[in-house]
Structure formats: structure tokens, C-alpha cells
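Methods — Computational structure assignment.
A single polypeptide chain was analysed. Its primary sequence is given first, followed by the predicted tertiary structure written as C-alpha cells.
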Amino acid sequence: MPFPNTRQALQDNGYVFNHTKTCEACNVQIEMWTTPKDNLMPLDFKRDEHQNETCEPHFASCKKPELYSRKLREKKEKEKAAAAAAGPMNPDA
């Protein structure tokens, strides 16, 4: 099932508007919506060339997407742990 990309499609699929906030990484206004599984999802709303409003998850365009995506946050933590376990890089070795 494709992601609902309009306000009406979001509502029709059980999403509920929660609040707006400014992203601390990008300094842009985003809308927080509650998903059908009761998670918060940050969304960017934009107008296309025909002035139709569409949305996409904010972590698709955010400078620090791990702020909003548990999967991306866990991936970054694993990468950090792996780098720490590997020790300091030594180009002379």
C-alpha cells in the first residue's frame, strides 16, 4: 500500500493530526501526525506546480533523520558501536 500523500488520504487511512513544531535540525515547520499504530510521524507538506498539496515523511529530507526515525537511530547507533569496537584507524598499519 503506498503512503498516503494528502491530508485527506492520511485521515482516510487512520492518521490523526497531533501538532506542529519546528525541526531543530532543519529549522522548518513540520506537522506531527499520529499513525494508525499510535506512533508519531513527522510530515512535510509542500505544494506542487499545480498547487496541489502533498506530504512526505520529514526524515526523507531532514539533515538529521535519526531524530525522527527509530530505525535510522538504531542503525546509526550500531555503526557507532562497530566503529568503536574496531578501534582507532591507523593508516600506517
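Note: The first strand starts at residue 16 and ends at 22.
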